[in-house]
Amino acid sequence: MNKKETRVRRARQTRIRIAEQLAHRLSIHRSNQHIFAQLYSPCGTKVLASASTMEADISKALNGNGGNSAAAQQIGKIIAERAIKAGVTEVAFDRSGFRYHGRVKALAEAAREAGLKF
């Protein structure tokens, strides 16, 4: 198995556990230059809110540098605000097989501080 296959395997197991809980799912994905967050409904078919460093206004605020912890904190705050607007305060955190470290941790902590519970 290569690095991507092991990450996807870990992500699959997490998503199975979250589906059993029937909870809203806050899913993240990171690349070298960007970070993305999406809030899914409990059935997993509908995206209720999303935020990414590729959005024009967010990219301008970050001066085009979306691959650092400061950018992840911004996305965490924005996704929490949008989730609360959509009427969701409790979510299950799906880190997509990425380690809870660095940008992933920064996004999660910023979302918690902005009012999401997970």
Largest sheet: 4 strands, mixed
H/E element string?
HEEEHHEH
**With helices defined by DSSP (H or I, 4 residues minimum), what is the helix count?**
4
What does the radius of gyration come to? Answer: 14 Å
Q: Could you tell me the strand content as a percent range? A: 15-25%
Strand order across the biggest sheet? 3-2-1-4
Low-confidence stretches: none
Q: Count all strands and give the number.
A: 4
Could you outline the blueprint of secondary structure elements for this entry?
Elements: H1 3-21, E1 25-30, E2 35-40, E3 47-52, H2 56-61, H3 69-85, E4 92-94, H4 103-113
Parallel strand pairs: 1-4
Antiparallel strand pairs: 1-2, 2-3
Structural commentary:
Helix content is 45%, strand content 18%. The protein is built from four helices and four strands; from the N terminus they run αβββααβα. The chain has a four-stranded mixed β-sheet with strand order 3-2-1-4. A hairpin with a 6-residue loop joins strand 2 (35-40) and strand 3. The radius of gyration is 14 Å and the shape is globular.
Keywords:
18% strand; four-stranded mixed beta sheet; 118 residues; alpha+beta; 4 helices
Structure summarized in a few sentences:
The protein has 118 residues and is of the alpha+beta class. Helices cover 45% and strands 18% of the residues.
